[in-house]
Amino acid sequence: MIRAAALAVALLSAGAFPSVHAEISDVKDVHAAFAAQRYDEIEALYDKVLRERRRAADGRFQSEVFLGNLPWYSDDDPASESYWPKVDAATAAWLAHSPGSPLAAMVRAHVLARRGNRLSAIGRWKEVDALVAEARRLLAGAREQGKRDANWHAVRLRVLGVEGVPREDVLDAIHAAAAVDPYPLRPWQFAALALSPDGRSTGDLPWLMRLAVERTRTTEGTTMYARVLASAYWHFPHLAAHPFGHDALDWNVAHRSFTELKQRYPEGYEPNLHGALACLAGDRAVTAAALAQAGAYAREDVWKIWGGDKHLARCRAWSTGEAQGPRA
Q: Which N-terminal residues, if any, form the signal peptide (predicted)?
């Protein structure tokens, strides 16, 4: 990824684009194609993956993976001064080439929202307002075609969250997105961020997880409970203080969801998150099994969010019978 990003920057800087190339046919190729300004091919491939509705092994639709592979460069911090000029210029160039492209509008609106979100944290409100205003104009211009695309709704939710609109507007947007297509993860993730931009409202994420299951249960079982949780739990650090109970997580539902997710989309299963929660719920067997699956890839950052610096070590010792409990 780093090498690909460096190549993209070098190509943009030098203007040295290959004159002969193979047509892109896989979502993993879109980053290089974007750097080479092959916009028509990018748009054609996006239309194709939207129609086909194929999924990656982790459960995401190829159209979601596609968008994740597009415009990022050497620095993935939207507040960084080394990041923004490149992304700003690249997405503006795409819009200039394809002014009627809903995809170009969505991609630029998303990077504007990301930049605005980071700048809001440091109080650069005048810039945030300008970024949000442009993002809204772009989405409005792409509405007729975009409103049938779950990713358009996802970006709309991301922009609403940065803008800080009334909660009722966010709820309306969530229900509109779910009515169009409740199965992609991306709208649910951005809905979580929009519902609670500061992450303080701990009941928002569990409510959203339950709604996602309600709208997808027929074909997805309870897997969306774990998938939505995994996509946004890091945004709600206060949830860790009281993770289970009224207006919080339901351990039985969570465990069932992680189990179904592991069976249905094994690459989307996150044993560290499952294990960290199992330990807090006092489920020794599940904690041990999750740690065994994580093996050498146990992520301390995940465990730390749920129980502090020593959560992983305590839970590992407890699950093997060497300690009395996860919070001992």
A: 1-22
State the greatest distance between any 2 C-alpha atoms of the chain, in Å, as a whole number.
Answer: 66
pTM of the model as a whole: 0.88
- Contacts of 233-236 spanning 24+ positions with Cβ under 8 A: 233/205, 233/273, 233/305, 234/305, 235/192, 235/193, 235/196, 235/199, 235/205, 236/192, 236/196, 236/199, 236/202, 236/204, 236/205
Instruction: Give CA separation, 214 vs 8, 208, 250, in Å.
Output: 42, 10, 15
d(CA 194, CA 20): 43
Q: How many other CB atoms are found less than 10 A from the CB of residue 123?
A: 9
51: Cβ contacts below 8 Å, ≥ 6 apart: none
Rounded Cα distance, 317 and 242, in Å: 22
Q: Distance (Å, rounded) from C-alpha 138 to C-alpha 125?
A: 20
Q: What is the pLDDT of residue 326?
A: 52
27/60 Cα distance (integer angstroms):
12
CB atoms within 10 A of CB 244: 16
Going from the C-alpha of 181 to that of each of 142, 221, 241, the distances in angstroms are 18, 16, 33
Q: Which residues of 52-77 are buried (b: 16+ CB within 10 A; e: fewer)?
A: eeebeebbbbbbbbbbebbbbbebee
Distances in Å between the Cα of 109 and the Cα atoms of 134, 164, 313 are: 7, 16, 42
Name the residue among 242, 249, 298 with its Cα closest to residue 270.
298
Query: Would you say 230 and 273 are in contact if contact means Cβ atoms under 8 Å apart?
Result: yes
For residues 238 and 202, the answer to whether their CB atoms sit within 8 Å is yes
Give 260-297 pLDDT, tens digit per residue: 999 999 999 999 999 999 999 999 999 999 999 999 99
What's the Rg (C-alpha) of the chain? 21
